[in-house]
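USER: For my understanding, would you kindly supply a protein sequence with its structure tokens?

ASSISTANT:
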Amino acid sequence: MSPGGEGVLTLTVRMRVSPEPDSFKELVSLMKRCMDALNCSIKVVVENKALSLGKAHKLLYSALKERYGLPSKVAQDCYREAIAIAKSWHSNPNRGG
């Protein structure tokens, strides 16, 4: 493959699924824990100016997994989203106004 990723095809699929009744409560629980974890992550990222992946990972990864019981990938996605939100907030000239 040539440098620059030429010749690479990426496909994104969007679909709607209905969870089985047995797993519905687990899914709702995970979504609520994700929401709480994201709110906490945003606060930590803003307070510590942890706008890099490394710093955010160090501050948040273990806490997200232990306190909120998030799977590894979900914990990583959570602090990545928190960084994106914090960067957006920092670049807004009317912060909170």
Q: What stands out?
A: Residues 21-48 form the longest helix (28 residues).
